[in-house]
Each structure stands twice: as C-alpha cells, then as structure tokens.
Amino acid sequence: LLRLVQEGRLDVLRDELRPDNALGPVVQSWRYGRLGDTLLHHAARYGHRDVLAYLVETLGMDVEVFNSDYKRPLHEAASMGHGECVSYLLERGASVDCLKKADWTPLMMACTKQNLEVIKALVEHGANPLLKNKDGWNCFHIGSREGHPQVLRYLLDVSPGSWDTESTIKRTPLHTAAMHGCFDVVELLLERCQYKPDSRDKCGVTPFMDAIQNGHVNIARLLLEKHQACPSAVDALGAQPLHRAAVTAQDEAIQFLVSELGVDVNERATALQLTALHYAAKEGHVHTIQTLLSLGADVHAKDGKSRSALHAACAGQQADAARILLCAGLQDAPDGTGMLAQQLARKPDVIQIFQETNVST
Whose CB among 64, 309, 314, 352 lies 3.0–4.6 Å from 341's, allowing a Cys bridge? Predict the structure, then answer.
C-alpha cells in the first residue's frame, strides 16, 4: 500500500481497499519508518492530491495526524512545494500554523523552497510570518538563508516588519545572507530593510565578517559600499575579519583586505596578541601562510607569550605548516616559558620535520 500511495496509483489502491477488504478500516493506524509517518504523510510528500482526497474522504483519515516529530501532512506538502495538496489540506481544515519538532510551521518549511505560490496560499489562509522556531528564526530569516529574493519581497509586502528579527544568538537575516553568499538577497536587504551597520551577534560577528570568513568578497564589497561596514571591526574575542579569514583559509578575502583596503597584515588579535599567520599556522593552511607571507606578514612575529607561528603549527600538529615556516627562515626559539616549538610536536610527521632540518628533539 505504501508504494501505491507514493506512486500515486489511486485505481490500484482503491481495489486493494475496496469495502469487502478488511484492510480498509485499519490503514488509518498504520505507521511507517522511524518517525511513524502515515499514508497521508506520504501522499502529501509525493504530491498526490487525488490520493490525499481518497484517504481523507473515503477512509476518514485525519488531516491533523502527526508523526513522532509532530510533523503533519501540511508540513510535508508545504516543504515539498505541492501547491494542490497544500490547498486541499487547508480547505479540509488543516491548522495553518501547526508546529512540528523545533517549532517549525508549514510556512517556514515552504520558505526553504522557491515556491511562491505555496507561500502565498499559506499566508492567504492566515499563516503568521512573524512566528519563530526554537532557534529564533522566522520565515524571513529562513528565506534569507535560502537566497530567494522574490520570496523575501513578498514577505515584506504582506508583513513589512518581518525583516526586523534576530535569532536566539542575535543573528539577523543580513548575517545569514552574507554568510551563505546570497548576493541578491543582501542587495535587497540593504535596499528595503534598516539593519544597523556592523550589527553584532552574540559572538561579536558582523555581516562583513561573515562574508569575509566564507570567501564572499563581492558581498563584502557591497557591505562596504552600501552599508558603511567597518573592515577592522573586532569580534567578542578581539579578532578582525583578517584573522577570521586566516582561520578559514580564504586567501582571496585576505588579499582583498590587505591589498585593497589597507588592513595591516600583521594586525594583532585577542588578548594573546595573535597575528593572522599564527591562526593560519595553527589550522595548517599552507597556501594561506604563503599568501600572508607574500603580503608582508612578519614570519618572526611573536604573540603575547613570545610564541611564534611555529609554536602554533606544532601545537596544532601541522607538519606542512611547520615545514614552510622553517623554510621561510623562522627558527625555533623558546617562548616566554622557555618552551621550544619542537617540544609541542607529538605526531611523528611533525617530529620528522625538525629531524630533517637537523634540529635535535
């Protein structure tokens, strides 16, 4: 029966569940899979409106039936963009703002897809665009992540204040769009919404930082030109976009910050006074180390505890990073406690680097 429902084979399904067949009355209680989906869930998920109607009107299945995640058939139809199924379920009295696990409404799930007609149908039946899920995301926030400007324009038209929202960790839709590289969405948000320049989430991260650390230089440029973003703003720990880009190995973004914006490649971060070179070395980003050195990074720079990037590479057990730093002329030297970088080496390949360079361990 499950396969018949999934394939939309209504004629065969009717034969299997004809009045003289004992299966008819019991199928309502049948559950499938780990989450306990019903046949109604599957009909909605696969977009078979005629099967849906048969299950509801002939077999008497409840449109509000839910699985172990509290997901209802309307959630399924909305998330898959099946407009006819959504309209049918709403006409049969399905609750438009029903909540599944993590407090997701059907409208939120519809906003993960580029199906404006489904979104309109839900809103026209009273769906509330301002409701938030457990992470504090409303529909506008979800649409900003997915990168659908036409969905966001519609939401702004029907709910002008929907843009003014923050997640539980104080991230705005602008943060999210910048992070995910949704250029058209960022452009729309800057045009129609009133986000404050360099608004910070709970970690002190700005939308500009999100764009830079994820390699979206075009969005970073847009935020500079249209939103007066600050390229040297610091997060809650004191790291600038430069340092965050070094952690994520975004070499193009580093080039942009240093060569075009004039950011000091040797700028210090956090109370530990770390340079971008320290961060790249700790993560083992060899190409980023090369990029930083080509831009004038001081290979001999030490942090507040007199540790060099070689200490960072060895602490992170990054053999290739240690090798390139040694080849660049950085020599092992004791930090403020007298510890050499090589003393932090634990992995055989890192230890081997020092043996190759005739440094005794």
Answer: 314
The upper half-sphere exposure of residue 183, i.e. CA atoms within 13 Å in the direction of its Cβ, equals 8
Compute the distance between CA of residue 7 and CA of residue 4 in angstroms, rounded to an integer.
Answer: 5
What local confidence, expressed as pLDDT, does residue 360 receive?
45
114: helix, strand or coil: coil
Between CA 346 and CA 301 the distance in angstroms is 23
- Is residue 174 a contact partner of residue 186, using CB atoms and an 8 Å limit? yes
Q: How far apart are CA 98 and CA 74, in angstroms?
A: 9
Average pLDDT, the chain: 95
- The predicted-structure confidence for 15-45, as pLDDT tens digits, reads as follows 888 766 666 667 888 899 999 999 999 999 9
Q: How many CB atoms lie within 10 A of CB 283?
A: 19
Which domains are present in the chain?
A: 1-128 (1.25.40.20), 235-360 (1.25.40.20)
Mean pLDDT value of segment 166-195: 98
If we measure between CA atoms, which residue out of 40, 76, 65 comes closest to residue 55? 40
pLDDT tens digits, one per residue of 84-99:
999 999 999 999 999 9
**3-state class (DSSP) for residue 38:** coil
Q: Which residues, including other chains, have CB under 8 Å from residue 158's CB and lie 6 or more apart? A: 123, 129
How do residues 280-305 score in pLDDT, each as one tens digit?
999 999 999 999 999 999 999 999 99
Where b means 16+ CB within 10 Å and e means fewer, 165-200 reads bbbeeebbbbbbbbbbbbbebbebbbeebebeebbb
